[in-house]
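Check out one such.
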Amino acid sequence: MEMEFYKYHGTGNDFILIDNRSGKFDAGDVEKIKALCHRRFGVGADGILLLENSEKYNFKMIYINSDGSRGSMCGNGGRCIVHFAHHLLKIVKDTKNVKFEAVDGEHEAEILDDERIKLKMQDVRNIGERNDLTFLYSGTTPHHIQFVTNLENFPVCSEARKVRDKNRDEKGVNVNYVEYKDGVLNMRTYERGVEDETWACGTGATSVAIASHYLGKLKGNVAHISMPGGDLTVEFEKEKDGTYKNIYLTGPAVFVFKGETN
């Protein structure tokens, strides 16, 4: 039976989106997921986003990595699925108050225009330092952040693989390398589940913004993030107890094409 899919990207972080309100797509079919995400023999994507029914919210988001493993929260994917729900499925009417359920709980979003989405992320409470690495969770997603020089020529994949499993999470971490230059946080990310460098990472951008403020490298509460796939903005507030709250990730969500597959 043929299945419709929609290809999206958020700053080059690309996804296959599927309307799974019928429940017909098997999220446990690892081989099918790998085949769909394969960049030579399939559609090609960093992961799959399933839009499913939710009793309490506009919809539920399920994220699956390209290796078939269940993903944690994905910021770029979150923006894309909000765009999908509103512009293509027409199941979201209120553009200023979109609410959906993800693996890390409730998320709110605002549709700013045809391609820009403002997404509220979960609070960040625990930040740790180890040698020259900063560690934190953005929602349920663990991130290492390391500041480097000459980011453009930095060997991201080879260095990240040394760090990926030496962490506090049994599934490994996302590893982010950052260079602060001319008021912009330039970053590159190696993502677990993809097991490669991606063009962008939304939870990574959030983590880099918070870590930069925590370390005193970022003075204000708005961070401009530049990645190989484009730019994102992160806003936040810091409470007296050190908690970072009201964290918003703003950036593009771009519909690329629609297709069918068996």
Remarks:
- The chain has two domains: 3-121+253-261, 127-250.
- The CA atoms of residues 149 and 179 lie 6 Å apart.
